[in-house]
Amino acid sequence: MKKLWIVALVAGIAATADAQPSDPYNHDAGGNGSAQAPPQEPQPPPPPQPGPEQPPPQQHTVRVLGRTRMYELPNEASAVMTYVEPNEQLVPVRTEGEWTYVENWRGQAGWIKTSRVAAAQAPASPDDAAAEEAKQEPPKKPEKPRPPDPPVDLPMLIAAPTGWLLPAAVLYSRTGLDTGGGFTSDNRVGLGDVAEFGVKTLDQVRSCSGPTTLSDCANSASAIQPYFTAIFRMGVGEDRLFDGQPGLVLGFEKSFERDDGDNATRIAELTLVASKKLGDRASIHVGAAFWDAEFTNSTSDTTVALHNLDGGFANQIRPFAGLAASPIAKSELLVDLSWAPQFCYACNTSGPTDNQQIRLRPELAWGVRYKVADWMLLESGVRVPDIGNANLLDAQIYGAVTFVTWGLRHAVDSVK
Amino acid sequence: MVTAPTAWLPAAGTAIGSASLDQHGTSSIVVGYGLGGIAEVELGGDGDVDQCDSVACKSRLYQARATFRVGARQDEWFDGQPALVFGVQESLPGTRRVGEAYVVASRTLGTGFGSWRLHAGAIALDATADDGSRLGFTVRPIGAIELVPAQYPKTTMMLDVTWLPELHAPGSMTAPVQAAWLGGFGVRYQALSWGSIELAIRASSVEDRGVMVRINGVLGQ
Fold first, then answer.
1. Looking at the domain that runs over B15-219, which CATH code has it been given?
2. Which of B13, B41, B70 is closest, CB to CB, to A399?
3. A393 min Cα distance to partner chain B (Å)
4. For chain A, which domains are there?
5. Which of A230, A165, A211 is nearest to A192 (CA)?
6. Within a 13 Å sphere around the CA of B218, how many CA atoms are in the beta-carbon half?
7. Does any CB of chain B come closer than 8 Å to the CB of residue A395?
8. What is the pLDDT of residues B135-186, one digit of tens each?
9. Does A330 touch chain B (CB under 8 A)?
10. Which of residues 75-134 of B touch A (CB under 8 A)?
């Protein structure tokens, strides 16, 4: 009997122990003494792991440019909650001006500067706190568009020069061909808006070897080609000195020595020309040329020069002129009168003045210049090499193309 | 026209071309370009200049030539003003040279029957032969008339006359180089807006040139 009582007592104690919490001081909410799982102690968050990247989140994330402070409030005076590393992925919640509210993978949420956010960039190497405060470079201002280039007044009509100069560093090139086989090329560059320099090849200088009279020579003369010259011009643009002032240019053109059979020839020309625009559609050009020319015969070793021939100074001075009119936009009618030397190697130097070995012959030219583009012009027309002879068969149909470019000027300006 | 020049100029940037062939196998080809709406430059070749011996003119002188034309369009300066063109045509260098300069005026007149186009002008010729003989500066009149019937707006009937140099062999009774007239009568059909075809009969002072077919094309405005 006594053993049974002890066994029941032990069983009763065991059953009661299972029903009671192990902690008699149950501190759950309300303290009702009900049986509950004891509260877990808060585990400290694991430290951030710099280097290895977190698994890519499913939502939109951003990074920061460098080590960045996360503030409690959108105010730099508020408490700093933590530092965000460049390799941390942040979830942007909202942006308010200079501040963006973000959350990190640790569940921390706070405010960072919007300028420190680099959503599409790889995070930069970690910066120290001083670099974090460094201001971002302001974005570069867009370059102002270059104004359109002004129209260029060309330095030549057809064969006569004008009183206009090329602008500084503007390149000009005119190449032509005519039905007589004449080839011309004129290449120039503007210098400082007050001068220009160029090299040319001419087809206007003519010669004849057989005839002994100038009239016979005029019918049979042929162009000496190629005939290279260099040209330098300087002057003043229109209206620079006073209102109504025409463009004035003083030019000098000198040839390289050119052998023509047994004769070595040279020419030089000094020109003074004035050009004036008449409204928007016309212009007039008037000038005077002072010429000299000579040839040296290698067989007889004699030299004949224009300035030594009968007639003297009057042989060398000649006027020239030209007109340009633009009846239709981009099209220009040109007419000019110019002069060119003609060598008659077999003509006599003594006797009547008609039989002179070097004479200046007038050339009349007319044509049309069409502006295909701002940098390209097409030209065609008729040149009569010796209008004094009035020989229809001597007339030549010519074609020319002119290029004008501001490229060098733009390149120089961009380097400045 | 069939043989004579007109005062019509192509628009700026327009290219034109024509090619012809006659029953004797003489051909020609010309390409031109409108320059700024006030001028035209052409390059081409043809066998229009006759070469004659003491018996007959049976061969043609093929020549490459260039032409520059400048002028004003109809009514450009004042109402009623005809189109005016001053043209110069030169052969390319060779032993024989042919040069022409002409002034021609053209005017379109409308009537109930159709549209008439009248062309009148003058041409100055000069030419040299192989032996150095020269025609000299010679002026002759040129003219042409066109009719576009109202019932057939794409068809043009043409009649014209012009002058060309004629080269004679040494020893013949005539001058070595002289000017001869060349006339033509034909019909042009504007098959396409950019192309037409012509059928014409040509005759000169020395021979019947026969039937000629020509096609024309325009590229551009």
1. 2.40.160.40
2. B41
3. 5
4. 63-132 (2.30.30.40), 171-415 (2.40.160.40)
5. A165
6. 17
7. yes
8. 788 899 999 999 998 888 899 999 999 998 877 666 655 666 778 888 899 9
9. yes
10. 76, 88-93, 97-101, 124-128
